[in-house]
Amino acid sequence: YIQHGTADQTVPYTESLAARARLCAGGSAVTLNTQQGGNHLTAVDPQPPLEWLKLLLTGVAPRNDCPK
Length: 68
Description:
It is a single chain. The protein has 68 residues and is of the alpha+beta class. It is 35% helix and 12% strand. The chain has two helices and two strands; from the N terminus they run βαβα. It has helices spanning 13-25, 47-57, and strands at 2-5, 32-35. It has a two-stranded parallel sheet. α1 (13-25) links the parallel β1 (2-5) and β2 (32-35). It starts with a strand and ends in an 11-residue tail after the last helix.
């Protein structure tokens, strides 16, 4: 699970895209939650990662955003 705001000037959004690419290339399933316009502080919405974790704990595969 990666959550990132597109306006983050502390850690560029492209870093998350690169991390997703590396994880996907290694065979991992990755959910990327992009928050349009979110910055380093405003992209900290706790609800999406909690929903993602809930899926895992109930045995449901979360959304996989790896390119096909």
